[in-house]
Amino acid sequence: MGTPFQQSLGLRWLAGDEPGQVAVELELRDDLKGPAGSLEGGVVSTIADVAGASAGAQATNGLVATQHMAISFLAPGRDGPVRATGTPLRVGKSDAVVEVRVVDRGRDARLIAVAIVTVKVIDPNWKSDGRDLGGG
């Protein structure tokens, strides 16, 4: 599922380890790496946005759009697969704030980035299965 862009990245949606979490995973392909051989920062940002928006949509039971995202890059993603897990921190009637942790599972789940994603509900009657949107 997901948008054509998300499909082109090869994103896979998974349940998180804890209730309410949504995880998104991708294989680290050569075409997603920068000149230094690590995952491009834009791809890391995209997977964080998708995981955050998916967790926000699931938590609010509505269609959401990303309103704000702050991300800190901590280490390079080199092996993969790379997994971003969104955990809702606060859920309101019209928005949600989600923490996203991005790890390189091929490097002992090394933490490569953390993000805070704020989403706004744009259609409260839409029902999500957690895999239908990617923010933006």
Question: What does this entry look like structurally?
Answer:
This protein has a single domain (4-123), classed as Roll (Thiol Ester Dehydrase, Chain A). The chain is of the alpha+beta class. It has a 6-stranded antiparallel sheet, with helices on one face. The chain contains 2 helices and 6 strands. It starts with a helix and ends in a 13-residue tail after the last strand. The longest helix has 20 residues, at 41-60. Strand 4 and strand 5 (95-104) form a beta hairpin. It has helices spanning 4-9, 41-60, and strands at residues 12-15, 22-26, 63-73, 82-91, 95-104, 110-123.
Features:
alpha+beta, Thiol Ester Dehydrase, Chain A
Question: What is the topology?
Answer:
Blueprint: H1 4-9, E1 12-15, E2 22-26, H2 41-60, E3 63-73, E4 82-91, E5 95-104, E6 110-123
* Overall geometric form: globular
- Quote the average pLDDT: 92
The CATH architecture can be named as Roll
Strand content: 35-45%
Radius of gyration: 14 Å
Question: What distance separates the N and C termini?
Answer: 16 Å
Count of spatially separate domains: 1
CATH class: Alpha Beta
Pattern of helices and strands: HEEHEEEE
Share of helix among residues?
A: 10-25%
SS field, number of helical segments: 2
* Backbone structural class: alpha+beta
Characterize the main sheet: 6 strands, antiparallel
CATH superfamily: Hotdog Thioesterase
Residue windows where pLDDT falls under 50 for at least 5 positions: none
Number of E-state strands: 6
Q: What is the fold named in CATH at topology level? A: Thiol Ester Dehydrase, Chain A
Strand order of the largest sheet: 1-2-4-5-6-3
